[in-house]
């Protein structure tokens, strides 16, 4: 297998099931990043990692962010995804280095956009997020983090400080050979529209959300 030359004249990684296709500067409102574009040949998903600063091999501040069109692009308050993405990018820039891996194919914890909207409609009728997925005959969480681990490996990252409240992300990275030196909480203040969703994530999906204990009343 041979190496390819990217648009910046740099060699890309060797062809694997997750192949680096391109690297380009990406200035953002949070700071200057480099966007690394990957193709997951196994699943057909196009993935991107946003890198700020020079990555070290150990203890890299890292966010694995599951695609959420409603939250990331439309500012939905049904979840905290958009705020988590913005906070992660800001914290990486403030730290001087780090990476945010944006994971396509993870919409609705892996069930897809239309199925997620159907599940949200059931939640509006009183089901929680777990019950809604099951009522549709869908898995509660179908996400796979193998591509994320291979992207981190391609970037030379051996261990991470993982920005996540989800223990399953940590467990998945460890299974795929990435050491998690620390799990960094990414706690977003809840609102009236997402407090039930967040409590379900804590009580039924084991997310670490200690800040909810102090939220007897939440803003609308």
UniProtKB/TrEMBL annotation:
- The residues listed in the UniProt record as binding GTP, with positions renumbered to this chain, are 63-67, 84, 107-109, 129, 164, 169
Q: Which family does it belong to?
A: Belongs to the GTP cyclohydrolase II family.
The terms under GO molecular function for this entry are: GTP cyclohydrolase II activity
Keywords assigned: GTP-binding, Hydrolase, Metal-binding, Nucleotide-binding, Riboflavin biosynthesis, Zinc
Q: What does this protein do?
A: Catalyzes the conversion of GTP to 2,5-diamino-6-ribosylamino-4(3H)-pyrimidinone 5'-phosphate (DARP), formate and pyrophosphate.
Designated gene of the protein = ribA
What detail does the entry give on cofactor binding?
Answer: Binds 1 zinc ion per subunit.
Specify the enzyme's EC class, one word: hydrolase
Please list the cofactors this protein needs.
Zn(2+)
Q: Which InterPro entries does the record cross-reference, listed alphabetically?
A: GTP_cyclohydro_II (IPR032677), RibA (IPR000926), RibA-like_sf (IPR036144)
Annotated GTP cyclohydrolase II domain residues: 19-185
Binding residues for Zn(2+): 68, 79, 81
**Where does the source fall among the domains of life?**
Bacteria
Q: What is this protein called?
A: GTP cyclohydrolase-2
Signal peptide per UniProt: none
Q: Which residues form the active site?
A: 141, 143
Q: Which Enzyme Commission number(s) are listed?
A: 3.5.4.25
Write down the PANTHER family for this protein, in alphabetical order. 3,4-DIHYDROXY-2-BUTANONE 4-PHOSPHATE SYNTHASE, GTP CYCLOHYDROLASE II-RELATED
């Amino acid at each position: 297998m041979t190496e390819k030359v990217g648009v910046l004249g740099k060699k890309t990684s060797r062809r694997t099931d997750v192949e680096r296709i391109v690297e380009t500067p990406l200035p953002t409102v949070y700071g200057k990043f480099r966007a690394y574009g990957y193709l997951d040949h196994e699943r057909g998903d196009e993935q991107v990692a946003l890198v700020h600063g020079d990555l070290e091999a150990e203890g890299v501040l890292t966010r694995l962010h599951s695609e959420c069109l409603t939250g990331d692009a439309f500012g939905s308050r049904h979840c905290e995804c958009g705020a988590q993405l913005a906070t992660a990018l800001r914290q990486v820039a403030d730290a001087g280095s780090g990476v945010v891996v944006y994971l396509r194919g993870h919409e609705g914890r892996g069930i897809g956009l239309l199925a997620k909207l159907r599940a949200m409609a059931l939640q509006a009728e009183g089901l929680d997020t777990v019950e809604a997925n099951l009522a549709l005959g869908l898995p509660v969480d179908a996400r796979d983090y193998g591509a994320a681990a291979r992207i981190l490996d391609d970037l030379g990252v051996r261990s991470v400080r993982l920005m996540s409240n989800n223990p399953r992300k940590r467990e998945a990275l460890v299974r795929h050979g990435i050491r998690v030196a620390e799990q960094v909480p990414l706690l977003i203040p809840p609102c009236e529209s997402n407090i039930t969703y967040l409590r379900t994530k804590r009580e039924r999906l084991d997310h670490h959300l200690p800040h909810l204990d102090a939220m007897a009343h939440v803003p609308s």
